[in-house]
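Example 446.
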Amino acid sequence: MQRGQFNSKAGFIMAAAGAAVGLGNVWGFPTQVASNGGGAFVLVYLLLAFCLAYPALMAELIIGRSARANAVTALPMLTDKPQLKVGGRIVGIAGLVTVAVILSFYAIIAGWLIAFAIAPVTQFLGFNEAEKWLTTFSLSRNVAFTFFFMVLTIIIISQGISNGIERWSKRMMPALIVILIALIAYMLTLPNALVGLEHYLKPDFSQIFNSQLIISAMGQAFFSLSLGVGCMLIYGSYLSSDENIVKAGAWVTLLDVGLAFIAGLLIIPSMYIASHFGVEIFDAEGALLSSDTLIFQILPALFEQMGSAGPIVALLFFLLMSLAALTSSISLLEVPVAYVVEAHDKKRHITSWVIGGLITLLSLIIVFNFDWLFGLVIAITTKYSQPLLGLFFCVYAGWVWQRNNALQEIKKGFEDAENSFFWKIWPWYVKFVCPLFIIIMFIHAL
Ligand code: PFF
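Predicted structure in complex with 4-fluoro-L-phenylalanine:
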């Protein structure tokens, strides 16, 4: 069977940046900044993203393009040793399970965002009951919108690589960037925005070696770059051999980190604007409120204070969030779908609906057991599973795979790779620095 491929380098970059840029950027990052002392977190995050996450991202992309297969098939191909082959399969399968669980909670949050994006429209039309339902936490709303979001995700994935993922990413990513910049331009004209900007940009250096902050920043970087679950590996496997993979990966990292940073320019000042309008933004201990309170209470309260501009800003804001979620959710669903299609020789269309349906069921289980299950699955997958699996991907790239094979793969679209700065650094990084750093962080966290 002919394998799908992205049509162009720009298509790959949009798709992979779309996979990377998601709730982790527009929600997770600003929220973490708010709860981890502002600028100090930004600084540590930037450092970790480029020094730790980028090399790990490259490991996945290069393995993927070399194997031209999903992670479960690709990792065993890196070695002749039977035990290591089995180990590779286990890592790949653990990635599949992790990705399915991530998508199941991701779809719930994305559902809320879509509901909040529709709410200003119903308000404008005078459907007040509908607006109330859309913006109030309830079982019926959560079920309906989780379902709706999953159907959107499944439809795109069922259309394939270039016709589905690439085509839709090329539409949604530019729209996302335009909305983000327009919102920032508007928000920064409002009172108190500059105070927020200062909190965001001025690092409190005493916080920089705070181990909790470093652990949060590492988890955030792994989540944001979609590492450890075979997502970037499968996207790499759809990249043409003519392209310079080192550059393509650098673009994806830059876009991901850049957009997280820019999202912070929107969210943190918005909080301080809200505070100017009388909205409470600090908790009892004086720390900035964050996570869902920030997105679903503080910001809507702010939009309500903005008069006639409010509903438009609210619509754009939640549309932005929903777009970011969708370009990532498709990459999450692609991982198990690609595996079943390739390894079990199934048709993409039907596989997308079956796997997507199963993950929707998982989402519904979480929705019905929200109080104890929601936070738990997020913590297990993003704090532990992703960095741990990321560690194994680095070990396979750095220790199991022959160094020369990696080089030959990189050289395909980058003849002079051998003499490049990248090749001088990267093999050491994936072999020693990344695994060691992840292990130290783990020991610390436990
Ligand atoms: N990187 C996405 C975000 O920042 O929201 C989340 C994600 C997508 C994680 C795909 C893992 C993944 F495989």
